[in-house]
Automatic annotation (TrEMBL):
Name assigned to this protein: Kelch repeat-containing protein
Tagged with keyword Membrane: yes
InterPro entries: Kelch-typ_b-propeller, Kelch_repeat-containing
Transmembrane portions of the chain: 12-33
Assigned keywords, A-Z: Membrane, Transmembrane, Transmembrane helix
The keyword Nucleus is assigned to this record: no
């Protein structure tokens, strides 16, 4: 007892000193970790939970519109150097999609928008189709995709009944592409298989033109290297008329995430990028790792099948727009996307503008802003209204970097 009592004054000072030391060490470690992690963007920063909205800066106020309860966008002005100075259009929020989607695909047939695949989170991909009815403002008619079909970064086109799906990425994270291709009869909701593309491709530019299904560009098997190859196959009423794809004239500039449009018997490819995320070497889950990307606004046209012609470039470089377009009154409308990364922070920069390419004048203009910046949005047009749904939105008016994967659906009256 006497011996223990004699050491008590020493313990009285040692224990508090040890606690202080641990606190200081922890604080220093936290500072060092934060400084090192902020020096380079992480894939995690691009994949915030789609369900966690606690950190999302609120951007809109709501008011009644035509005596209904739909929110109308009244956002503060975007204020970053990447934003173009154009007015915010009046947007009405519609019913949400059943699930959030990033890098999904969409095709409009009549008053229905068929929405396929896409990421729910970086570790989860959708393998079904949801259908939005423009007339009734409802989502419904969910049905499954084939088990062997890609889950994101699809190439897709339609003839008004049959939806042709070409290659894409199979699985979550940054897994590689598949060469398998399919066709959906939208009337019966039955799937059948098409001859596979000669090699797997990731996000190829895809369109029907002169009785042939064309697929070109995209990224190669590593997900990063741009591809220039261009193939086509004859199709009719949902069936391939040939056993194999034939080579066509290569596209002048390769890469994924481009709009591919046929209008006035011309085949146009708009925007896109060179490079993309790759799987981290040795990762058993193909964990995404960022690589250098070059976003561009180039526009190419093929009108005789023999030579690509370059048309005026977009108002600014734009990518992630493969299903973000519609054709209205002989004009191509492109909604949102991504542009060149921030030169200081190196973060991805989202686009919040709506661009118009007037085919009569062959010139671009910027016609307005979205309620927020968003990439890989899915776009349709019905009865004078421009619609968009899904994608990944920004962090707020002062931060154009990506945050939340969304399920919201919006529309604005479009008069050209």
């Amino acid at each position: 007892m006497a011996r223990l009592g004699g050491k008590a004054p020493v313990l009285k000072y040692i224990i508090p000193a040890a606690c202080v030391g641990l606190l200081v060490a922890g604080l220093l470690a936290n500072i060092l970790w934060a400084s090192s992690s902020s020096s380079r963007p992480s894939i995690i920063s691009y994949w915030e939970s789609s369900e966690d909205s606690s950190k999302v800066i609120p951007l809109i106020e709501t008011k009644n519109f035509n005596n209904n309860k739909a929110p109308i966008a009244r956002e503060k002005k975007n204020s970053t150097p990447e934003d173009l100075s154009v007015p915010l259009l009046e947007w009405e929020e519609m019913v949400q999609a059943p699930v959030p989607r990033l890098d999904g695909a969409a095709i409009q047939i009549g008053n229905l928008l068929y929405v396929l695949a896409g990421y729910g989170t970086i570790d989860y991909v959708h393998s079904h189709v949801d259908v939005y009815n423009f007339t009734e403002n409802t989502w419904g008619g969910k049905f499954d995709m084939p088990k062997e079909m890609a889950h994101s970064h699809l190439g897709m086109a339609t003839d008004g009944r049959y939806i042709y799906v070409v290659t894409g990425q199979y699985g979550p994270q940054c897994r590689g592409p598949t060469a398998k291709s399919f066709v959906l009869d939208a009337k019966t909701k039955k799937w059948s298989q098409l001859p596979p593309l000669p090699v797997p491709r990731y996000a190829p530019a895809t369109q029907l033109w002169r009785g042939r299904l064309h697929a070109m560009g995209g990224s190669k098997e590593d997900r990063h290297e741009p591809a220039l190859e261009h193939w086509s196959i004859a199709v009719k009423d949902g069936k391939a008329l040939e056993n194999d794809w034939r080579p066509e004239i290569p596209i002048p500039r390769g890469g994924p995430h481009r709009a591919c449009i046929v209008v006035n018997d011309h085949l146009l490819v708009i925007g896109g990028q060179e490079g993309d995320f790759m799987a981290k070497p040795g990762s058993p889950i193909f964990k995404c790792s960022r690589r250098n990307e070059v976003v561009y606004g180039d526009v190419y046209m093929l009108d005789d099948g023999k030579e690509w012609k370059q048309l005026p470039s977009m108002p600014k470089p734009d990518s992630h727009i493969e299903f973000a377009w519609v054709v209205v009154n002989n004009s191509i409308i492109i909604v949102g996307g991504t542009t060149e990364k921030n030169p200081v922070t190196k973060k991805m920069v989202l686009v919040g503008e709506i661009f118009r390419f007037n085919l009569n004048r062959m010139e671009w203009s910027t016609i307005g802003r979205m309620p927020f910046r968003v990439k890989t949005t899915l776009v349709g047009f019905w009865n004078g209204w421009l619609y968009f749904t899904s994608g990944q939105r920004d962090r707020g008016p002062n931060d154009p970097s990506p945050k939340k994967v969304i399920a919201s659906t919006w529309r604005t009256k479009l008069s050209l």
